[in-house]
Amino acid sequence: MFRNLVSVSFILAMSVLSISGTVSAEDQSKGWTADPDLVKKFESRSSSNNGGRDFIYSEEKVPEYSLPDILTTDAGEKVTTVKEWESTRRPEILELFRKHVYGRNPVGRPEQMSFDVYDVDPKAMDGKATRKQVKITFENNGKSLSVNVVIFIPNDAEHPVPAYLLICNRDKTNIDPTRENKIEYWPAEEIVARGYAAVAFHNADIDPDDYDKFQNGIHGVLDEGERHDDAWATLAAWAWGASRVLDYLETDRMIDAEHVAVVGHSRGGKTSLWAGATDERFAMVVSNNSGCGGAALSRRQYGETVGRINRAFPHWFCEKFSEYNENESEIPVDQHMLLALAAPRLLYVTSANEDLWADPRGEFLSCKEASTAYEIYGKTGLGTNQIPALNEPVQQGNIGYHVRSGGHGLTLYDWTQFMNFTDKHWKKR
Ligand code: GTR
């Protein structure tokens, strides 16, 4: 358990939570902790692009910080009912993330969008699946952009089937429609064997993953006029793209669009959280090894920091977010509030024990804090305050979490846990 440092005034204590970076002996004995040798190894790397600060990898160096309270409105009132959460606090938090972190997506579907199902193979995967490929095309002012969607639907299942939609942020061979390349990152055969449709698109189809001053991709097609400091950037564009794929899935009779999990790894895992926050049609959000700007708490400054991420990837977040470089305590939100926007839907967050850059403990703490939003609905969020041991997934509530052994990556182990979790909730085993 984290010790509460009584260092804030009573009034402040009503709206923020004060947490120190100290991990108690009890916590260390039970749950996962970072391997001290690995911590030393990370600490010995030089710290560049971090505003003159050293990167933090030991809990002792995590500064004391106060988290904004999920349930206290901007006016200082505590929200206690679903109605107050949905009509006041949830929209407030969403707006804070739009304004300060991810920027403002265009709302909903664009006027000119079409779906072309150009490839159907009912005997894919040795007859086990139907493969479809769909081209989604957006047009505006004489410009157009197309996104390719790869879909495998189990044949031996009662249709419509629930689906996993992966935002692929690695190269396209990872979501190979021919299945010559089978990679754990997208284990389509295993997903199909478990009775789920495997759906994927490549993030760069929507927006290139480089700083092009928002001239290309969907920005080049849809954006008009001057850019403001809360204009949508690249992560928001990818998230919006995931929603457009869901628009297609809603038209496909073989898919149960009310049970679609949006999945992302790393930069894709930051994106899936924003997709789930902005589009409540997603029944589940999966954020794998997402770290800074994803599930990890920014105020801990552990591993990658806000300043570093904004300098290294100036196209990911809205411009306003860079005002918080080396100034995390001034962000009006922290990432536990982004996770809370998934409530009361299913949420699954993962860490990997060698992925200290992504701050496994910070990812866990976000899940723990986000649980209060689930409790408003009378539901269990994570259901524990204790970080689990390595490879011991927590799946007792509506938030799932695990720390896997190994490095930064999306593996068959991770996918297996996601499907165990949805089997429990969606198949009522
Ligand atoms: C890293 C970046 C992380 C994470 C990762 C990835 O370079 O610092 O925030 O997004 O890339 O996407 O693999």
From TrEMBL:
The keyword Hydrolase applies. Gene3D superfamilies: alpha/beta hydrolase (3.40.50.1820). Residues 1-25 form the signal peptide. It holds the Pfam family GCE_fung. Keywords: Hydrolase, Serine esterase, Signal. It comes from the Bacteria. Residues 136-378 form the 4-O-methyl-glucuronoyl methylesterase-like domain. The keyword Lipid metabolism does not apply. InterPro entries: AB_hydrolase_fold, FrsA_esterase, GCE-like_dom. GO terms for molecular function: carboxylic ester hydrolase activity. PANTHER family: DIENELACTONE HYDROLASE DOMAIN-CONTAINING PROTEIN-RELATED, POLYKETIDE TRANSFERASE AF380. This is 4-O-methyl-glucuronoyl methylesterase-like domain-containing protein.
